[in-house]
Specification:
Blueprint (H helix, E strand, L loop, with lengths): L11 H11 L20 H13 L12 H17 L7 E5 L2 H18 L8 E5 L5 H9 L2 E5 L1 E2 L2 E2 L1 H7 L4 E7 L11 H11 L3 E4 L7 H6 L14 E7 L11 E5 L2 H4 L4 E3 L7 E3 L8 H39 L3 E2 L7 E5 L5 H10 L5 E4 L2 E6 L8 H17 L12
Parallel strand pairs: 2-3, 2-6, 6-7, 7-8
Antiparallel strand pairs: 1-9, 4-5, 8-9, 10-11, 12-13, 13-15, 14-15
Length: 411
């Protein structure tokens, strides 16, 4: 409905108080009460995010000639990502507004590559496992590309099932590192072999894992190859505003070669305003997102990230063990920051509802119905509280009728 704009302005202290009032119903994420949407690396990182963002919040990354500072910071951030993800000498990338933007632009590049380099005509398709993020479906809907989702094997992508539905019109196959529903890294090496054997464009969706998996590996965990060290990987997406702990919205889309990235870039000059070149879906690119990413990554460095990610994985292991002691089963063998767990006797959605009564806002997986956590470093401080509340919620559901009160929905 239409809301009239106030006839006169309101002073900032009044507005600030009103905003705080509006926020009283929001989840208490600074208290560690949420395990989705927000990546809480602590107050020091939050301060760096805010100060670095506001320092360049009026600048526009669309104009690198006008703001060479942003171009330099973007190049350095992309370089950090490529270094962590085994980018070869000719690898390149771009900062985008988020994972959906990165995925959309990677699919656009793969589509244009298929048409212009391989001569593919007619209807196109993309092949991905059932666990892949819906951002691929959104991008495919925009470009009218058929989506072929394939069954999973032990919650992981099944390369044989994917190979069976690929054909000459397949412009991309997808693996996740990790998938959002389960927090598990797909068999990217096998998908790389498939991509090479069939000359397919393999995109690795590392939106969640791109800026945590390298450091977890440095900390001694056995992380399988998932990035550009595998020769079949042509593009990747990795979100800075997830486990990079940068300000929203910031992601990276990365390509094995500059020749592949050229198919992503939009270059238009047939209008009165002169040439317009945009590397991402958006035109205007908030300078604050670029500057905050640069500042946070330099603030943490390898040592800082290893410490933060060590807290995440230790907390994941602690909660997994605590949940299993209560009779839950963890899905697969997660090694990063996501875990999903289900119970053979009670409805996980009912448990979720009881946890909401204690102020927890987390997400859910539906196949099977499971509790789902995407953990941050700050959760190390509240893991014991969560496990105590999980035990209470489980007891409450067991003591009642187990009704969910309707399907829980989240976006």
């Amino acid at each position: 409905m239409a809301t009239p704009l106030p006839a006169t302005g309101t002073d900032w202290p009044t507005l600030k108080a009103r905003m705080a009032e509006y926020a009283t119903g929001d989840v208490a994420w600074r208290d560690g009460k949420t395990a989705v949407y927000v990546f809480n690396a602590g107050p020091e990182v939050e301060r760096v995010q805010k100060e670095a963002y506001t320092a360049f919040m009026s600048e526009n990354g669309l104009g690198p000639a006008a703001f060479p500072s942003l171009a330099r910071m973007e190049a350095e951030v992309v370089g950090f990502g490529l270094s962590l993800l085994h980018g070869p000498e000719d690898a390149v990338g771009t900062i985008t507004s988020g994972g959906t933007d990165s995925i959309t632009m990677a699919l656009k590049a793969a589509r244009d590559f298929a048409r212009k380099e391989k001569g593919v005509v007619g209807p196109l398709n993309i092949v991905l496992p059932r666990s892949a993020h819906p951002a691929f479906d959104k991008a495919a809907a925009v470009m009218e590309i058929e989506v072929r989702r394939t069954p999973l094997n032990a919650y992981l992508a099944d390369p044989e099932a994917m190979a069976a539905v690929c054909d000459a019109a397949t412009v991309m196959i997808v693996g996740s590192a990790p998938s959002f529903p389960y927090g598990l890294i797909d068999p990217i090496a096998a998908l790389s072999d498939l991509a090479i054997a069939r000359d397919l464009w393999l995109h690795v969706d590392a939106c969640v894992g791109g800026y945590i998996a390298p450091f977890v590996r440095m900390n001694g965990e056995d992380i399988p190859p998932f990035d550009f060290e595998l020769p079949g990987v042509r593009s990747m997406s990795a979100d800075l505003h997830k486990y990079g702990y940068c300000a929203k919205g910031a992601s990276t889309v990365l390509f094995r070669t500059a020749a592949l990235r050229k198919f992503m870039i939009f270059d238009f000059r047939d209008w009165p305003g002169g040439r317009m070149v945009t590397p991402t879906l958006a035109g205007t690119r908030p300078g604050g997102a670029i500057s905050a990413a640069w500042a946070v990554m330099n603030f943490l460095g390898v040592a800082g990230y290893r410490e933060k990610q060590g807290l995440v994985t230790a907390t994941r292991a602690k909660i997994a063990a605590g949940a299993e002691a209560l009779g839950f089963s963890v899905l697969g063998q997660p090694k990063l920051g996501i875990l999903a767990f289900t119970h053979p006797e009670v409805d996980s959605q009912a448990v979720w509802g009881k946890l909401r009564e204690r102020g927890w806002f987390t997400s859910l997986a539906t196949e099977p119905r499971s509790l789902h956590l995407m953990l941050s470093p700050f959760h190390a401080e509240v893991a014991d509280t969560y496990l105590a509340d999980l035990a209470w919620a489980l007891g409450e559901v067991r003591g009642g009728d187990g009704a969910t009160g309707g399907e829980v929905r989240y976006s």
